[in-house]
Hints:
Strand content: under 5%
Shape: elongated
Oligomer: single chain
Helix content: over 70%
Amino acid sequence: MPPKVNEPDPDPNVPDPNEHPYAEGVNHFLTGLSNILDDEKTLQAVGTLVNAHADDVKKRSFSFWRNYTTSLIFSLLIYVGIFVLAWNGKISKESTVALLGTLIGYLYGRIQGSKEH
């Protein structure tokens, strides 16, 4: 086994050819981020933010379901009204089809629009 040769310490100002060019910047960023997260006030602020967001999600969820059920009940009332008017002969068959088609198209478009967001 050949004897080990003492290699000189690499110059810190010369970049290592095997290291990614952004590695030093990423290391500085992660060091700064860890220093920020070590602070107790930062942890409390992040905890407060997470709790506020969780409370907001609960409120939005309740609001969504309330609006959803209200719109369904309203739509059912309109459908029943159209059906009763058509059954009693107050509106023609063509008008019934046009009204029901319009409402079905509106509800379908609303459902498809909510899927995109």
